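Sample 1 of the test manifest.
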Amino acid sequence: MNDLPAQSDDCRTALREQLRPELFRALCDPNRLTLVARFASANRPLTVTEAGTCCGVHISGVSRHLAMLREAGVLQATKQGREVRYELDCGALASALRQLADALENCRAVCCAQTEEMGNECCGSNC
Amino acid sequence: MNDLPAQSDDCRTALREQLRPELFRALCDPNRLTLVARFASANRPLTVTEAGTCCGVHISGVSRHLAMLREAGVLQATKQGREVRYELDCGALASALRQLADALENCRAVCCAQTEEMGNECCGSNC
DNA sequence: TGATTATTTGCGAATTTGTGCAAACATGCT
DNA sequence: AGCATGTTTGCACAAATTCGCAAATAATCA
């Protein structure tokens, strides 16, 4: 069933942990991406109302979008008086993306080496 | 309407180009992520039927999932006889993720510097 | 040619998602 | 307290997504 022996389980489980559907789910909507871009260039906390000006969505929809981005770890929220300040968790998002990139390439490297050890033809054209 | 002067347009448009909804759309489904993980550890081209064994989805659904991943640039396909060999474009995916991470942090750095030049309080708690 | 295998496509059903509106909730102000 | 402002939540509805099945397409083999 598996293509490689058990030793490569580590890199595979590491990769699986990085492949969080919630993150991509949060980032797959055009309006939410517009919001993310807005936060990235605003470079300061924005209220729901402020953030909402960048996409033509009703404020209630903006509220839901921001909540989803927060739950995915993309944004951080702090309540200040009656308004909520959302802020891009730039470091967290960037490092999550880099960790996923690393996990992908590590998985390939490890599995590739093991395939060679086994004396098989290796990795198709990507090796 | 914008928070910063025109000089920061470069990093913002660069970020917008990296924020492709199609990529995240392709990666937001659990079954498609299972397929991606399968390709990453298989480390060689897989046919539609081979790939499909990892998720309990009908072969026609697998075919559609793989096509979507291919259109998003995650997989590459080559037809060989009557079967189609799909392969993870590991380098392309990893570099796309890293470029997005870079664009995010660059956008923050540039906009952050400009905000300071303008003498305003800078960037909230993330600066 | 006909039979078999691999993949894709059309279709309909079930589910999820994005949305606006109205109401509720929370906070601050007079 | 009453009123205004900012945000969230319930609800309904349209659009999109996922899925399995069956039929169509493509390629191999007898």
